[in-house]
Amino acid sequence: MATIITVSNQKGGVGKTTTSAALATGISSSGMRVLCIDLDPQGNLGFCLGLESANGPTVLDALKGQMPIQQAISRTDYCDILPSDITLSSSGLEQVITEHREYILRDTIAPVMAEYDYVVIDTPPALNLLTVNAYAVSDFLIIPMASDILSLVGLSQLKDTIESVRSSLNPNLNVMGILLTRFNRRTLLSRDVLEMAEQLAKQINTVVFSTKIRSGVAIAEAPAHGESIFDYNPSSPAVKDYQEFIHEIAHIIHLEGVRENGQKDE
Question: What is the DSSP letter of 93?
Answer without folding.
Answer: H
